[in-house]
Amino acid sequence: MRIEVRVPVLPESVAEGTLLNWHKQPGDRVSRDENLVDIETDKVVLDVPAPKDGVLVEVLKNEGDSVAGQDVIAVIDTAAKGAAAEDDAGKGDTGKGEAAKPAAAPAVNRTDLSPAVRKLVAEHGLDPARISGSGKGGRILKEDVLDFLEKQQETPAEAPAASAPAPAAPAAPAAPAPGERAEQRVPMTRLRARIAERLVEAQHSAAMLTTFNEVNMQPVMELRNRYKEKFEKENDGTRLGFMSFFIKAAIAGLQRFPEVNASIDGSDIVYHGYYDIGVAVSGPRGLVVPILRDVDQMSFAGIEQGIADFGKKAQSGQLTMDDLTGGTFTISNGGVFGSLVSTPILNPPQSAILGMHKIQERPVAEDGQVVIRPMMYLALTYDHRIIDGREAVRFLVTIKDALEDPARLLLQV
Q: Mind listing the domains of the chain with CATH numbers?
């Protein structure tokens, strides 16, 4: 029976995707749930698994083609036999007993491997038997394969051909020779194109203004240093970072100034009665903003664990559409890259975004004396159509006060 392979249903916010690369060619045998092709959207890279066992008899869309949700991209014949099946059948006619021992399936076709894991194993020619699984019942996870590849890179003599998964964007060209005026033209990835589109959209559609302040990080740093070991021990290895303090402080500000947690829909202002915070993280394909939902109901440990999980998923390409959809407020930390001050751009349709920056010791005046304190500049970019300057400044001061006196976060004052 011939069955169609279709593009998965895409969310309303994603109009189309681009076929990146086919992992199977016409005539190849495929197993159910085996990844056939990667589709890049403006948010994530999707796997398209085979719906049934069979032979891929026809490919209707080529690499680089644009596709929409539910488009037919290939055809599988569940009754046909591929070249590999014919080879196996021929071995059964030797009369030497080989028929009782069917040829071992390639390692990448193991049924206990997810499509993402099979893809990595196939791309790098790995033997799953050499990879230790950390999943339930010893199942191999994508993180296990990435860790295995990283260890191989550290010991190239054992596996010189192994390498880390390549990012979606083409590799940068080698440095030109002195005097050479080299150029390289590469297509913009769909994610990068969508980022560019949204940034330009924000510039054109919102009345953006940025207000700045600075915060003395010493109280938070002292509290963190005092309890981080016990925190990690009590929460199964979850580390206490700075982001949970900033998110908790932001929630206090959003509850006090609901317009900062609002958005514009046509001629209406929508005030959100929930707090879904986007945390910008960097992955191989660029900057992405996964969403922590109902953060007001989360503990410090829950926030830190959620951020850590998003970081791992971003690096391994496992973020889903749901992870990246929605959000009422965003926090971006340019300080991890050394940024001292910047003006973040809104993430439409949100009305504000908070920018964190590098913690740097600076001389400040306290009680008539000059002292050295670990200081951080904060930047709040907001949509002046919804938020007045007074509310924006007071919102940022609320965050500053909460961080400089962390007891406020516990007492909610």
A: 1-103 (2.40.50.100), 109-166 (4.10.320.10), 192-411 (3.30.559.10)
